[in-house]
Amino acid sequence: MTGNLGKVMKESATIALEYIKSNAEKLGINPDIFDSYNVHIHVPEGATPKDGPSAGITMLTSLVSLFTQRKVKKSIAMTGEITLRGKVLPVGGIKEKILAAKRARIKEILLCEDNKSDIDEIKPEYLKGLTFHYVKDMSDVLELALTKEKVKNAKKL
Q1: d(CA 75, CA 26)
Q2: Distance between CA 17 and CA 129 in Å, rounded?
Q3: Which listed residue (26, 54, 71, 102) is catalytic?
Q4: CA-to-CA dists, residue 144 to 61, 108, 116, 139, 149, angstroms
Q5: Active-site residue among 26, 97, 102, 107?
Q6: Is 3.30.413.10 the CATH number for 2-150?
Q7: Predicted local distance difference test score (pLDDT) of residue 152
Q8: Residue 97 catalytic?
Q9: pTM
């Protein structure tokens, strides 16, 4: 892992990869792939240090997309912490994340079902045009976020 990742974000990346390794066959991934390839995660530095567990489900989703060569849905955002067993845990800063998603023209947002109370506190007019999916574990996330379609020029891993 390189870039400006804080300790907690590094832990999230490690948890994501370990979850994938232990559930490879269930995810449609040949477990031998981990003997053939290294995984390098780079979070560009920019001006802002990145830390916190919020990107856990996003990292795991992007890694599963990489290993399966399946596309991630367009116009979708997600936030949530993950555990080694694949549970999705709530995170903070939901109101700010919703505003950022709207500015980016995101239409669907995946978040922990325990964050529903945060959404309920936001004025309905700010939520127009958004669809929320409340998830409990990574199987829910992957079902909603990944398409069945392969990426363009898919590699045989």
Answers
A1: 26
A2: 33
A3: 54
A4: 10, 10, 17, 9, 13
A5: 97
A6: no
A7: 83
A8: yes
A9: 0.88
